[in-house]
Amino acid sequence: MIGSPPICFNARTAIRPEPSPASGVERKTDMLRERQLSARIAPTPPVQIGRPVAADLIAVLAAVTSGDPRVLTIQDQRALPSGPFELAHRSMQSGLRAWVERQTRLPLGYVEQLYTFADKDRGGGEQRVISISYLGLTREQPASGEFEASWRSWYAYFPWEDHRVGPPPVIEDVLLPRLRAWAEDSFSARIAHDRWQRAASTFGFDRAWNEELVLQRYELLYEAGLIPEAERDDAGDAPRDPAAIDAVSGMGRAMILDHRRILATGIARLRAKIKYHPVVFELMPETFTLLQLQRCVEALAGRLVHKQNFRRLIEQQELVEETGETSQDTGGRPAKLFRFRREVLAERAIFGTKLPISRA
Amino acid sequence: MIGSPPICFNARTAIRPEPSPASGVERKTDMLRERQLSARIAPTPPVQIGRPVAADLIAVLAAVTSGDPRVLTIQDQRALPSGPFELAHRSMQSGLRAWVERQTRLPLGYVEQLYTFADKDRGGGEQRVISISYLGLTREQPASGEFEASWRSWYAYFPWEDHRVGPPPVIEDVLLPRLRAWAEDSFSARIAHDRWQRAASTFGFDRAWNEELVLQRYELLYEAGLIPEAERDDAGDAPRDPAAIDAVSGMGRAMILDHRRILATGIARLRAKIKYHPVVFELMPETFTLLQLQRCVEALAGRLVHKQNFRRLIEQQELVEETGETSQDTGGRPAKLFRFRREVLAERAIFGTKLPISRA
DNA sequence: CCGTGTAATGCTCGTTTGGAGTATAAGTGA
DNA sequence: TCACTTATACTCCAAACGAGCATTACACGG
């Protein structure tokens, strides 16, 4: 990547628009700037442009339905939706948004770039593919319907990530012993120690569980050869029968290419984000009870939250306001209905919304 | 929890999690995976490959020399180094690393992807360019020498970001009045209010200064038309005379295209990162005193730190170990020399290195 | 040799957060 | 009516944090 050109640094002049990596939410500003920029004249282009590559977008679209965090999948739930990068749009972000909304009729409340990958030969031959992945949040009842897409709980792909009812048995029953075996199967005691160290710290064998290490855990399992995708790659030839791959007990459902890794990246990002940015509301219906909100957060974080503290936090931050109505769904004292105070998005530049996650 | 944009809370430690798609530090895992993936056979390229585009990499290379945070620039300090994306390397990250090390002879201790941009019309006609930006940290005495590259304090580009000796006068003397004028120059009182609200919160007129909002501040100034680059874009034709652009007092040195924006992204990312990940050490020499370390952090954060608390934090986290030697450079009691305990990188999967930033 | 300047260090304090627990109120359904 | 479920109001406590005071150690200049 990056070429060898001795001293060259391109003197390109065209200006690059693009939505803010920070705000995620596309602002008027961005649009504005983009329009202006595209009207500009590029003064001095003469730069050797890199050789052509192909680019496409991959989306991790998340929603939470009845306490279950879901992700939109295609191809028999083995792939994330993706599409070619088109020039038609002002920015990739708006392009992604338009594309998703057209395909699924779901409004995307929030879009954020995740990561850009470059694989050698994917599409064959000389051409290289660049994949730019995005995380998008949408409301409930996805009603995707249309084509071959379907929503699926992301814990189907990462069974070890759901700690809402305590640590999943699969960790101790399957992962722990296999990771230990992997660690011990090393050339040196040093490597064995390091391996075990990593396993213990990412899975919390020796400390508290950290729900944000989704990607690290996946990568560790991959490296340890416990992930079907890894075996497939190792083989160097066609993947084994999908059914067989899925059959690898306890390791979760496999996906094509590195889609599962991208999904892990998205989950990790989202779990981190909800702690300091009020994005959860993008996943909630217009009005909701505090318990519903809490359940949503718990679904994402994969762990429980202390109810009283959760409420204290939400209230003291004035994130929501009462609608005046109440809901008496789940038998029990009726709960007040709330609505997200969108004003806070403007009020505070960036702030931390915190999540009280139980230690127990 | 939750949320979307702002929720306030005290400027205490606000530890911001991070969109770290991975650890940033390239691990064996990554290499491994990439090799495997490239050997893999794509089962069903579910995706039509997009039309060819050009791609290049842009680097924000940072170092801290004698209390000054520097960035590597080219073209008379008006551009960030960049180069075409080539297929020669296993990954973009390793490509970037190799390229930089070859060009500058600087070892990159840490590399992290920042953001990927896509422009319409840049290289002319049909072809579109994708720019993938990276943040790289390197040791002191950059000794770039070689070609037209030079290190430059990043506060030359963002004069309002250095609060180490208190808020820079430029904020109250220049920015505040101009932003107020911009806010008032709106169609509606509502817009005026929103504009002022944003200005006040990002620049801390009505609350504490938040050093992480580098990008938001830059974008705000851009939107307000106070940034030379914006005028240039607005003009719709060739940029004005560079000297004239730089002359815009108080607004910092301009750069080509949106390089300054990318730099802002890098600074913001770094300021956030040092609070929960021990990356500062990548900028330090092999051995150092705690005061030097503190100065480095202060240079990056653009604000002072409480010395005693800083030490307490560093020690209790066992990030460093004594070398046994002392340094008696700056007249005063000789300071013990320390060395970073690299083991911690392996010990803890991710942990928080916290920084005690003074409120005063 | 003493006084002064500059840092390094050690310790204390009071406040703020954040995790947890207890108690009580207010509905539904059997 | 009771049994059950959830909403809500408070209280406690300990760790984390921001700040300040006091003391120790050197270099240097008279």
Automatic annotation (TrEMBL), chains A, B:
Signal peptide: none annotated. Residues 280-340 form the NrtR DNA-binding winged helix domain. This is Uncharacterized conserved protein. It comes from Methylocapsa palsarum.
